[in-house]
Specification:
Elements lengths: L1 E6 L7 H13 L4 E4 L32 H11 L4 E4 L2 E2 L5 H14 L4 E6 L4 H7 L6 H15 L5 E4 L4 E5 L12 E4 L5 H8 L2 E3 L5 H17 L8 E5 L6 H9 L4 E5 L4 H14 L1
Parallel strand pairs: 1-2, 1-11, 2-3, 3-5, 4-5, 5-8, 8-9, 9-10, 10-11
Antiparallel strand pairs: 6-7
């Protein structure tokens, strides 16, 4: 079982504090550090947040949500072994060629430590602000990811679709990892089918074992439908530490590969506690 941390809504006051936490995490043997994406937080929004019963994110608009790739690039430069994950970047609302370039560059500069978490998003108001249609974002996600894989291949890129027209170019550097791990987030709509077809892993923000087991079984079924071995999919879930180490052991016995601890409240104390959990497992 791998244990990592995820900076969820920490509202860090400085970049130095994030770097310090990441360095300490690496020293304690924590496997990975993850961070998520929102370009904006609207003052009011009608889009329901799917992972909270009240439908809201629970953070004020003034929260410092630093761009994930910028955060992880800074961490990469200050560390040497800890893996770097995005949990998750919202693919359909951005330019996929630019994101492919940035992800390849981060993997190159970190010597192959990136796990690129991607999702379709839920916040229509954010899409509106980005000037991108919210509708058909799932179809756009699927097409973008297939096109990005071509950019990372090193071959001449040829991709003509409803959404993109890419022809006769290459983009270097290539990712160090081949394939670059793409971890797909979410459990709504066609998420499991999408993971089976295009993903290397599943990122779920849910913390209940029964929900994660249901997702694991759905992914296995979707993999079989497309002739893929479900064992190829690495599953990453959340661990709320107050539930104790037995929770981690149950997840491990159920075949879950990685548990992430949300860094909230007193981040330094959380990271020390994760280090102690690693030593105890």
């Amino acid at each position: 079982m791998k244990l990592g941390i995820v900076f969820i809504n920490t509202g860090a006051k400085s970049g130095d504090s994030i770097i310090e936490l990441a360095r300490r995490a690496e020293a304690l043997g924590i496997e990975s550090v993850w961070t998520g994406e929102h370009v904006i937080i609207p003052l009011e929004y009608s889009s329901p947040y799917p992972y909270n019963e009240n439908g809201k994110m629970g953070v004020p608009p003034e929260t410092n949500l630093v761009d994930p790739l910028i955060t992880l690039a800074a961490i990469a430069g200050a560390t040497s072994t800890i893996r770097l994950g995005t949990g998750v970047n919202i693919l359909p609302q951005v330019n996929p060629l630019l994101l492919a370039k940035q992800a390849a560059g981060l993997d190159f500069m970190s010597n192959g430590r990136l796990m690129l978490g991607l999702g379709i998003g839920w916040l229509k108001e954010e899409y509106d602000a980005m000037g991108v249609p919210f509708e058909r974002r799932g179809a756009r996600f699927d097409d973008y990811l297939q096109a990005m894989r071509k950019v990372w291949s090193g071959d001449v890129v040829e991709h003509e679709s409803e959404f993109l027209s890419w022809h006769n170019f290459k983009s270097y550097p290539l990712p160090v990892q081949s394939p670059l791990p793409v971890v797909i987030g979410g459990d709504k709509g066609k998420a499991f089918e999408r993971i089976a077809k295009y993903g290397n892993g599943w990122y779920t923000p849910r913390g209940k074992l029964e929900d994660v087991m249901h997702g694991r079984d759905e992914i296995a079924s979707a993999c079989r439908a497309v002739g893929r071995d479900p064992a190829e999919i690495e599953i990453t879930a959340m661990w709320h530490m107050q539930t104790g180490l037995d929770t981690v052991r149950r997840y491990r016995d159920a075949g879950i590969h990685r548990m992430l601890v949300p860094v909230v409240g007193k981040p330094a104390e959380v990271i020390e506690a994760v280090g102690e959990a690693i030593a105890a497992l």
